[in-house]
Amino acid sequence: MAPRANWKGFLRLSLVTCPVALYPATSESEKVSFNQLNRKTGHRIKYAKVDADTGEEVANEDIVKGYKVDTDTFIEVTKEELENVALESTRTIEIDEFVERSEIDPRYIIRPYYLCPDGKVGHDAYAVIRETIREMNKVAIGRVVLTNREHIIALEAFDKGLMGTLLRYPYEVRSEAEYFDDIQDVKVTKDMLDLAKHIVNQKAGHFEPDKFEDQYETALVDLINQKRAGKPITAKERPRGENVVDLMDALRKSIGGAAAAKDTKPAKKSRKVASGQKEMLMPIAGKKPAKEAAAKKSAAKPQRKSA
Questions:
Q1: Using CA atoms, how far apart are residues 30 and 276, in angstroms rounded to an integer?
Q2: Buried-most residue among 89, 91, 215, 296 (CB within 10 A)?
Q3: Distance from C-alpha of 305 to C-alpha of 277, rounded to nearest angstrom
Q4: What is the per-residue pLDDT across 71-124, written as a single tens digit (0 to 9) for each?
C-alpha cells in the first residue's frame, strides 16, 4: 500500500498552478525497533501524561500548547489560534526563485520528499513546471508548512516527477568556527600527499547504494534470532585503534594493504542489500513479509517469524 501523503495543496509558478501531494522519499519502518520492558514482569512500559504539580493523569483533550516565559509562567496557545496564523505556504508551495544546485550548502539539507500530482487534473501544469526546472538545470526554492512549521523546500526534476528537499534556516546551522578554531595548522609534505592520493586511487569506485549493507541491522537480527533459539550470546572483541607513530610508514603500509585487498577480493555480483536485509528481519506487527522472496531463500537464510 502506498504511503499516505504528508501534505496536500498546490504548486504554483507565477500563474501556473496544479494540485500536488508530498510523500516521504525515505523510510525507517523496516529497521529493528525495541520496546521498553519492566525487567521484573516482562510487561511493556506505558507512559502517562501527568500534571507536574498534582501528579494526576491529564486527558488528551485537556492538553494545550504553552510557551514558557519564566519558571512558573506560560502563555497558552490553542490549536485554533495556531491555525489562524494564516501562511500562504500552509496550502500552496509558491516558487520564489531558481538557484544552482551547487549553491545549496549540504548543512542546510534535512530530508527528501516526492512531490506528485494530486488527482487526475493538473498533470499538464505539473509537467510544464517539471520540464522547465529540468531544462534550465536549476533548483526551485519555495516554502511549505509541515507539522505546524514553515520550511524552505528545494524542488528539482527527478525521473518522471519532482523531488523536494526540506532545508534548514540559517539560525538552525551552527558556525564551523566554534569547532575548527582549535585545529592545528599542519604542513603536509608532498611525499605524504602523494602516498595518500595513491591510496585514494586504489580505492576509487562509483557510488552504488546497493553494495552497502547495514551491518549493525544485520547484527541485531542475528542477536535476536540467537536469543529466540536459546543459543548463548558471546561478546565480540571490540576493534582497538592504534596510535600512529610514523605517518609515512603507516601510509606505505596502507598502500600495500589496499593493493592486497584488491587482488584477493573475490568477484561477486552486486546485490540489492535492502531487499536481502528485509528477508532476514522478523516481522513487525501489522506487516507481511514478501512471500516469494522468503520461499526462495528459506533454506539458506533465517526466516522472519511471528513475534
A1: 12
A2: 89
A3: 14
A4: 889 999 988 887 777 677 788 999 999 999 999 999 999 999 999 999 888 999
- 137 conformational bin, left if phi > 0, alpha if psi -120 to 50, beta if neither: left
Cα–Cα distance, 162 to 11 (Å, whole number): 11
Look at strands 149-158 and 161-167 and give their pairing.
antiparallel
105 with 95: CB under 8 angstroms?
Answer: no
CA distance 111 to 153: 10
**SS3 of residue 20 by DSSP:** strand
Convert the pLDDT of each residue in 193-243 to its tens digit. Answer: 998 898 888 888 898 888 888 888 888 889 899 889 888 888 877 767 666
Unique residue bearing C-alpha cell 595518500: 196
Cell numbers for 155, please give them. Answer: 524542488
What is the spatial distance between Cα 270 and Cα 208, in angstroms, rounded to a whole number? Answer: 9
Is the CA virtual torsion 180, 182, 187, 192 positive or negative?
negative
The DSSP element (H or E) to which 73 belongs, if any, is: strand 73-77
DSSP letter (8 states) at residue 107: G
Helices (H) and strands (E) in the chain, counts: 8, 10
Handedness of CA 37, 38, 39, 43 (dihedral sign): negative
